[in-house]
Each structure stands twice: as structure tokens, then as C-alpha cells.
């Protein structure tokens, strides 16, 4: 039991270090060597838990899905009824504060998945799959007028949509200037308004 706890604590320390470095730089600028330096462990010790930096990023990605799943689970526990507008607003609120998840989604996931062992990828897919299960359950509970086909149509439109939330709502000054110089009148939506409006339109298109 004690060794299991130590293993979990050290894995968390490594993933935490990766998160800090990623926040300061980016995926390609982060190396396994730098991650090890951010921990209390040696680089060879880090290899006991993760073979590549892609595996560490995948664990971080999985953790972010788990955190979103916590928000979806709390929403599912509510007893109140919701019309389409309130439901769309509630889904948007679950993604507030999930900037890291959305940033990771906007990356090339193939890099992380290709550089990870199968067991690491399976663990990640479980977290991702739980998000799908919870969203299906939320639709069944709060939008009972939808049938199974409607709910699947919603799922497979909403999850691809999530890949574009970060780049459309997190914009640098350089990007703003480039858009302006290119003569593009871009509205710069907030995360909440983008997710809420998309979810509402998607719900109204079902059935």
C-alpha cells in the first residue's frame, strides 16, 4: 500500500512538473530532461514511471479530462430540469477553467499517442471515454426529447468542435494585429459564449 502511494505521488510530481513547464513554454520546448530537473528525482528515476515526454503529456491530458469529468458528474447530480438554453449554458460553464484541457486538445494528439506505450494510451482513452459517457447521460437526463440517434449526433459534433475552442478564444496580440492587417473582422468570442452558442444551435438542429 505504501509503495503504491509513493508511486502515485511520484507520478503526480512528474505530471505537475510537465504542467508547469508547458504553461511557461509549449509542447516542443519541453523535454524529458527539463521535466526531470523540475522534480526531486533523477532523470533515470523518471524513466521508471514514464518512458517518453509524450507519455507524461498524455497523463496530463488524461488528468485534465478527469477534472472535466468531475464537473460533468456534478452537473449530472442536479435534480432540476433545464430548457435548451440553460443546458447549453451549463455545458459551457463546465469548460470554464479547463483552459489546459482545451489547449492540449488543440495540439497534434498523434504525437502524444504515437510516442506512448499501449497501456498509457488505454488509460487516456478511459478518461476520454468517461467524458463521452457523461455527456450522453446528461443529454438523456436533461434533454429527454432526444433519442439515441440525436445524442450520438450531438456527441460526434461536440467533441470535434472542442479541438477548435482554444485557438478561437485565446489570441495573442501578434495574432490580433495580423488579423487586423489582413482586413479580417474577427469577433473574438469568449470561451463561454462560443461553447454556449454552439451547444444551443446543435441542440436545436436535432430531431
What secondary-structure arrangement, pairings included, does this model have?
Elements: H1 2-24, H2 32-37, H3 43-46, H4 53-76, H5 84-95, H6 99-105, H7 109-114, H8 118-142, H9 148-162, H10 165-169, H11 173-181, H12 191-205
Task: Characterise the protein shown here.
The protein contains 12 helices and no strands. 73% of the residues lie in helices and 0% in strands. The protein folds into 2 domains: 1-50, Homeodomain-like (Arc Repressor Mutant, subunit A); 58-205, Tetracycline Repressor, domain 2 (Orthogonal Bundle), CATH 1.10.357.10. The chain is mainly α and 207 residues long.
Shape: globular
Give me the Rg, rounded: 19 Å
The major pleated sheet works out as: none
Strand content: under 5%
Straight-line N-to-C gap? 51 Å
SS class: mainly alpha
Number of strands: 0
Counting DSSP H or I runs of 4 or more residues, the number of helices is 12
Helix content: over 70%
CATH class membership of the largest domain = Mainly Alpha
Please identify which CATH superfamily of the largest domain we are dealing with: Tetracycline Repressor, domain 2
CATH topology title of the largest domain? Tetracycline Repressor, domain 2
Mean pLDDT: 94
Q: What is the name of the CATH architecture of the largest domain?
A: Orthogonal Bundle
List unreliable stretches of 5+ residues: none
**Number of domains as seen in the coordinates:** 2
- State the order of secondary-structure elements, H for helix, E for strand: HHHHHHHHHHHH
Amino acid at each position: 500500500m505504501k509503495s503504491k502511494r509513493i508511486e502515485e505521488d511520484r507520478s503526480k510530481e512528474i505530471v505537475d512538473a510537465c504542467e508547469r513547464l508547458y504553461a511557461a513554454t509549449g509542447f516542443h520546448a519541453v523535454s524529458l530532461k527539463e521535466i526531470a530537473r523540475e522534480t526531486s528525482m533523477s532523470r533515470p528515476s523518471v524513466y521508471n514511471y514514464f518512458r517518453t515526454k509524450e507519455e507524461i503529456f498524455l497523463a496530463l491530458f488524461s488528468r485534465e479530462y478527469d477534472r472535466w469529468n468531475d464537473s460533468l458528474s456534478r452537473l449530472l447530480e442536479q435534480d432540476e430540469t433545464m430548457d435548451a438554453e440553460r443546458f447549453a449554458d451549463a455545458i459551457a460553464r463546465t469548460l470554464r477553467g479547463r483552459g489546459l484541457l482545451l489547449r492540449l486538445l488543440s495540439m497534434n494528439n498523434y504525437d502524444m499517442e504515437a510516442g506512448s506505450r499501449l497501456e498509457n494510451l488505454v488509460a487516456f482513452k478511459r478518461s476520454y471515454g468517461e467524458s463521452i459517457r457523461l455527456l450522453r447521460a446528461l443529454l438523456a437526463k436533461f434533454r429527454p426529447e432526444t433519442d439515441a440517434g440525436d445524442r450520438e449526433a450531438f456527441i460526434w459534433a461536440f467533441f470535434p468542435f472542442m479541438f477548435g475552442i482554444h485557438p478561437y478564444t485565446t489570441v495573442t496580440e501578434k495574432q490580433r494585429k495580423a488579423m487586423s492587417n489582413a482586413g479580417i473582422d474577427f469577433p473574438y468570442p469568449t470561451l463561454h459564449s462560443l461553447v454556449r452558442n454552439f451547444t444551443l444551435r446543435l441542440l436545436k438542429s436535432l430531431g
